[in-house]
Amino acid sequence: MATSSAEGPDLAMLAHRLTGALQRALRQAQADDGDSVIGPRHRAVLICLAPTGSRAVDVARESGQHKQVVGTLVDDLEKGGYIRRQPDPVDRRGKLIVPTALGLEQVARTKALMAAIEDDIVAALGAQRYRDFKLTCERVVKILTDDGTE
Amino acid sequence: MATSSAEGPDLAMLAHRLTGALQRALRQAQADDGDSVIGPRHRAVLICLAPTGSRAVDVARESGQHKQVVGTLVDDLEKGGYIRRQPDPVDRRGKLIVPTALGLEQVARTKALMAAIEDDIVAALGAQRYRDFKLTCERVVKILTDDGTE
Fold first, then answer.
1. Minimal Cβ distance to B133: which of A23, A140, A144
2. Which of A50, A142, A26, A28 is nearest to B14 (CA)?
3. How far is the C-alpha of B95 from the C-alpha of B59, rounded, in Å?
């Protein structure tokens, strides 16, 4: 236990710093853009929605947030007019969370801002290294998700 | 804008998934350990504290969380007996957040659990690739923090 991985900050701290740095960069970009600022956790939900609607459980998995938290965020988004809930055609007891036109516009704008932020990282890091980094990040998530902690 | 970086999920989504997967892995490890479960955001604060105490502003920077959020989390940690606040000897208006014995024990236990989780990742990914991944993660945080979004 705690061999090479014990050097420097652990992955949980790094992940927190990464999330925090991204949130600040995005908030700054949104402010520059004159955009209404949606919280980062709301954004994480909104960006996960399929245009035809998604189930809360899938949004929770996709966004890495707890289902209860997603419920609260979806309530906020509904109040703001970014989403609406409608019955799931394939599950009568279920609801789909469907982005509104305003919600889709917000997603498109946020995606463009994020792409610009990522281009800055690519410029500083190199395309190959950044691509490797993202692939490894996905792989780490998969390792954590598939294997648990054994 | 949005060149190679536009493929696959953007970095904000990856960072969210990574944080979520780590939180679940850690929660699982804590449950196996019979440990009392502190929320991941509380843990992020607790783990940042210097043994002699830290200022809230430094904890916010270190943990990547907003200063107001840190204040709330510190209130919770104080109620749980994990930290106490005491006057900052070098800044009379300021307070230091000092981990208690219980808090330090919690940090040590969490660090051991995180190290075991990281060892699982190293086993699946290889030590070199994981080391590169963490270094690149730190570099990305630095790029985001130094340059803003320009």
1. A140
2. A142
3. 12
Q: Tell me the backbone φ, ψ of residue B65, rounded to 5 degrees.
A: -120, 155
The ipTM (two decimal places) reads 0.74
Residue B118: inside a domain, yes or no? yes
Range of the domain at A50: 36-147
* pLDDT tens sequence for chain A (150 residues): 444 444 677 888 888 888 888 888 888 887 776 656 577 678 888 888 998 999 998 988 877 677 888 899 999 999 999 999 999 988 888 899 999 999 999 888 888 888 999 999 999 999 999 999 999 999 999 999 885 443
Tokens of A64: 């890495």
Please check whether residue B116 lies inside any domain of the structure.
yes
Domain assignment of residue A29, yes or no:
no
What CATH number did the domain enclosing A41 receive?
1.10.10.10
* Distance of alpha carbon A20 from alpha carbon B62, whole angstroms: 10
Residue A54 DSSP one-character state = B
Predicted TM-score (pTM) of this structure: 0.74
Helix B56-63 to helix A11-32 angle, to the nearest 10 degrees?
90
Q: Which of A36, A41, A26 is nearest to A75 (CA)?
A: A41
Alpha-carbon distance A33 to nearest alpha carbon in chain B (angstroms): 12
- The 8-class DSSP code of residue B96 comes to E
Structure-block tokens of residue B26: 């850690």
Is B21 a domain residue?
A: no
Nearest CA in chain B to A17: B64
How many domains does one find in chain A?
1
Angstroms from B83 CA to nearest CA on chain A: 19
